[in-house]
Write a structure and sequence with these properties.
Largest sheet of chain A: 2 strands, antiparallel
Oligomer: heterodimer
CATH architecture of the largest domain in chain A: Orthogonal Bundle
Distance between the termini of chain B: 71 Å
CATH class of the largest domain in chain A: Mainly Alpha
Number of strands of chain B: 15
Helix content of chain A: 55-70%
Number of helices of chain A: 15
CATH superfamily of the largest domain in chain A: MetI-like
Structural class of chain A: mainly alpha
Helix content of chain B: 40-55%
Structural class of chain B: alpha/beta
Strand content of chain B: 5-15%
CATH topology of the largest domain in chain A: MetI-like fold
Radius of gyration of chain B: 26 Å
Distance between the termini of chain A: 74 Å
Number of helices of chain B: 17
Order of helices and strands of chain A: HHHHHHEEHHHHHHHHH
Radius of gyration of chain A: 28 Å
Chain lengths: 312, 430
């Protein structure tokens, strides 16, 4: 009797599907990509509408709004609205102001809030838990409820000014860059986020550094900061947009046109009959910096959102 | 090392503080005091080059005309202006001269933002009554111009449909108006009237409270200024708002259009309830066929809203500055400036002298009908500090009614809200 052994059939991994399965999988993938492209285009519509409308006269924007023409560069196309924007609004000055205020707020905020987060998560001191609770409680206070008292407060704060080449003191921060930056450096959510993120870094690293003679600032600068890239990226992005979009606060504290940011400029176009073409041209101009920042840091943004679990 | 650092820091801070104190406060001690007194002036005109051009001309000529005062202008966008004023008042930082929309004046006067204007009567008596803002017997504001609403129509369309052309002396009765709307709808205009309901904010009170007043109601009892009961929810008010609701139900009007007058220009609507500011563009589009008609008579004669942007002097203005501010305003109320303002802004000049100088509003001007409408039918909105609440409550109630809410109960709710506000503010001094 011949002993026959049948070799167990071993199919290479990944090839154990039925012949039609690969096709099905490809088809599913195709549909998924089509759906995602559709959703992507859907979210692009407002931007396309904004840009295309910025090239049309106001009357045509309104008459095109009921048809697909609203998204197409058809009809009376020109750059007149952009010329109109530059005539009506000192847009370059507003952009410079917004860039300066936003960059300063974000940069200083990263330093101050990360240090606060470091103190709350790494240092042992009495009242630490209570202070963290206060910081979290501050998250639920809407800015609008404290805006008016804050205006009064900043109008009385001391400041230094040069008068006739001499340094003097004065009172009142209204009409300055500092009043648009300093109140927004400390940010409760950023402190909370840094605190949480720093807590995930093993404390044994601090202890090893302490044994090597490092002080707290060295530990913060040499160990914690380099290990917290995603947290810094998240906070930078989350504080960039509100700083760029500031409207109410600068409206209340900045009276001089040369210090106003871009968002206040939006109101320049809303006269008795809004100049819709110029509105679209202006929004295109002030959206560009945000788009450039987002596209430049897209990868960091996505990875930081994934790492921190925070959605903007 | 670390223990020493604290005393070092404290010493440095103390030395810095001493150094700063030694420097002295800016703007004090050492100023020559020889320069002109600065008068800050805020306008709502940012983004409106035509308006700013006239202001800049007046300011330049005033500053050149004397060397005691210097007016420095700062302009704000209109949509953000009232918030900026409120914030400045909170910070005790109001400008000396400021402009304001007419109906907000009593509120700002009551809140202590403004002081009486005290301009010579030779100036204020010459102005349109609705260009002068009075609160508790005192004039707090005065303006170069007023606006007026009317009904735009095409003569050819009315003639073709056998609709009588109304005049200031013989406006449409409400029955005639209803019949005209029904006829125009049958003639093919799906929505014959652009009533402007797609707009929001102050427009609602400005545009529709005159209709209510024409019907015999009002936003508040003007005799006492203490209650809206009977005025906003009386039988006349209920009748008017029932008509208002039915106009939307029947499709005579809609809130789905676009702000402005484009639908009339495109001949998508036959009638447009709109203001003088849209007139030139409409003349350009429609030509001689354009009719500027009085609004319909809902029972007590046509009414249109009066009172637009006017000038005031803030209570933050020092005695010296106040004198300068008055001199500036007196200087600015020249017919020449008022006329230039009217032509550039396309608004009704506030003096008869300026009317004659204008291109659009003189006897032969294309926009002359608006002068007559303003003179005949303009009625100021209630001159009470409660007006901001009245206006927002009126808007909410009217929108609810437009959307089908029960008329009487909605108006009763609005009255309750307005009266509660007046009561919680101790009657606003009335």
């Amino acid at each position: 009797m011949a002993l026959t052994t049948t070799k167990p059939e071993v199919r290479p991994a990944g090839r154990d599907r039925e012949p039609g399965e690969g096709r099905l999988r490809r088809r599913r993938k195709l549909w998924a990509y089509l759906a995602m492209s559709g959703i992507g285009i859907f979210f692009l519509f407002p931007l396309v509408f904004m840009f295309v409308s910025s090239l049309k006269p106001s009357g045509q924007i309104l008459s095109d709004s009921g048809s697909l023409n609203a998204f197409l560069p058809v009809g009376d196309i020109s750059l007149d609205n952009y010329f109109g924007v530059f005539e009506r609004v000192p847009v370059a000055q507003f952009l410079v102001n917004s860039v300066f205020v936003t960059v300063a707020t974000v940069a200083l905020g990263l330093v101050v809030n990360s240090m606060a987060g470091f103190a709350l998560s790494r240092l042992e001191w009495r009242g630490r838990g209570l202070l963290l609770s206060v910081v979290i409680a501050a998250l639920i206070v809407p800015f609008e409820t404290i805006a008016v008292p804050m205006v009064y407060w900043v109008s009385k704060l001391p400041t230094l000014v040069f008068e006739g080449g001499v340094l003097k003191y004065d009172f009142g921060w209204l009409n300055s860059y500092q009043v648009q930056i300093i109140p927004f450096i400390a940010h409760a959510f950023s402190i909370f986020l840094f605190t949480q993120y720093f807590s995930t870094i093993p404390k044994s690293l601090d202890e090893a550094a302490r044994i090597d003679g490092a002080g707290w600032f060295t530990i913060y600068r040499r160990i914690i900061v380099p290990l917290s890239g995603p947290a810094f990226a998240t906070v930078a992005i989350l504080t960039f947009l509100p700083a760029w979009n500031q409207y109410l606060w600068p409206l209340m504290v900045v009276q001089q046109e040369e210090l106003r940011p871009v968002m206040v400029g939006m109101q320049y176009f809303f006269q008795l009959n809004p100049a819709w073409g110029e509105v679209m041209a202006y929004t295109t101009l002030i959206t560009l910096p945000v788009l450039i920042v987002f596209l430049s840091f897209q990868r960091a943004f996505v990875s930081s959102v994934a790492a921190s679990g925070v959605k903007g | 090392m670390k223990r020493r650092s604290l005393p070092v820091m404290v010493s440095l801070c103390a030395a810095s503080a001493l150094a700063l104190t030694g420097c002295g406060q800016a703007g004090q001690g050492g100023g020559s005091g020889d320069g002109p007194i600065e008068l800050t002036m805020w306008t709502h005109s940012a983004g409106n080059p035509a308006e700013l051009e006239v202001y800049e001309k007046i300011i330049t000529e005033f500053n050149a005309s004397q060397d005691e005062y210097k007016v420095v202008e700062e302009s704000f966008p209109q949509g953000a202006y009232n918030d900026a004023i409120t914030a400045a008042a909170a910070a005790d930082d109001l400008p000396c001269l400021l402009d304001m929309d007419g109906p907000i004046m009593p509120n700002w006067a009551w809140a202590g933002y403004l002081q009486p204007l005290d301009l010579p009567t030779s100036i204020t008596d010459e102005l349109l009554p609705t260009a002068v803002g009075t609160y508790e017997g005192e004039i707090y504001s005065a303006g170069y111009w007023d606006a007026a609403l009317s009904i735009f129509a095409r003569k050819s369309v009315l003639d073709a449909n056998g609709i009588r052309i109304p005049t200031v002396d013989e406006p449409w009765t409400i029955d005639e108006f209803d019949a005209a709307l029904a006829t125009l709808q049958s003639a093919g205009y799906a929505t014959p009237l652009d009533i402007g309901a797609e707009d929001a904010g102050e427009w609602w009170s400005y545009a529709y409270s005159p209709m209510l007043q024409s019907a015999g109601g009002d936003e508040i009892d003007r005799d006492t200024m203490l209650t809206a009961d009977g005025a906003l929810n009386g039988p006349e008010a209920v009748d008017f708002f029932t008509w208002f609701q039915e106009a939307f139900e029947k499709g005579w009007a809609s809130n789905a259009g676009t702000i402005g007058n484009q639908e009339f220009v495109d001949d998508k609507v036959a009638l447009s309830y709109t203001g003088v500011w849209n007139a030139l563009a409409s003349i350009e589009a429609v030509g001689d066929d354009l009719l500027i008609l009085p609004p319909p008579d809902f029972g007590t004669g046509p009414k249109i809203g009066g009172g637009s942007w006017q000038w005031g002097i803030s209570s933050n203005c020092s005695e010296e500055q106040t004198e300068g501010a008055r001199q500036y305003l007196e200087f600015s109320f020249q017919d020449e400036y008022i006329a230039e303002f009217a032509d550039k802004q396309v608004v009704i000049p506030a003096t008869a002298g300026a009317e004659a100088l204008t291109e659009h509003f003189s006897e032969d001007g294309a926009l002359r009908p608006f002068v007559e409408l303003s003179q005949q039918f303009a009625l100021a909105r209630p001159e009470t500090p409660a007006y901001p609440v009245i206006s927002s409550t009126f808007e909410k109630a009217a929108k609810d009614i437009m959307n089908g809410a029960d008329v009487k109960s909605t108006l009763d709710g609005a009255v309750k809200e307005i009266d509660a506000n007046i009561e919680s503010n101790d009657g606003y001094g009335f």
